[in-house]
Amino acid sequence: MFDSNKKKIRVRKEFLVKFCLFFCGAVSIFTTLGIVAVLLFETISFFKEVPILNFLTDTQWTPLFVNKHFGISPLFTATILTAAIAMLVAIPLGLLTAIFLSEYASQGVRRILKPILEVLAGVPTIVYGYFALFFVTPLLQKLIPGLHGFNSLSPGIVMGIMILPLILSLSEDAMYAVPQSLRDAAFALGSSRLQVALKVVVPAAFSGITASFILAVSRAVGETMLMAIAAGQMPNLTLNPLVPIETMTTYIVQISLGDTPYGTLEYQTIFAVGMVLFLFTFVLNIVGGKLRGKFRELYV
After folding, report:
1. Exposed / middle / buried, residue 298 (Cβ in 10 Å: 0-12, 13-18, 19+)
2. What is the CATH number of domain 73-299?
């Protein structure tokens, strides 16, 4: 009788745990579906007024002006430009630091240095924004006289520092998971430590390293406050990093401040821009997830 009661209690507890886990998973799924539904509904309403061909091919973005243009190109180009600058900073620094922690640093140094570097990921993005605007930009203006107060170079560099822990942590984990037998075999053939790191460990962990790059790009594309503070709000179609620009996330912040009446065509532009941003980051996350899955299959 006593064992039967214990079994019933255990079954109830397991059912409660399963229900809680299912509820948490369902909340996240339905939240995602709700976001997609809102974006899709408002985007369809927007494209009833604005031809999608004009949206994709027009080179001007002036929905708040009297002469309205709804070309996404300036916002999309600015977003890609700042993300590219950030990756040019984050990839070499992150990868080289990951190689050092995985192949050269002792266990004690690794346990201390890695958490310190990962603290950068916990700094609020608005702090990075003011750091870019009031410290990095004036510093760069001394080196580059033609640099505007708002530009894509300064926030791009700072964003590279901001996403550095993402590349560093994931790349180092991927390299650290490479079997020691591969390193020992390379050492036995007379390879130096640098040769082992660059020609054995990095290629073996390439899928995990690539996944970190893709996830970092996704993070850079979706950055909001840093770009809103330091990049400006001028939708210029340009690849010049010295002039003010406006990214997709910055435009969404600008319209969301409340000056644009709800339900108007101008207000609906944020959903069209949000859909483009969602699709772009969604594709990047899918690719990154597949690469991480491939990495786990190979080394786990």
Report:
1. middle
2. 1.10.3720.10
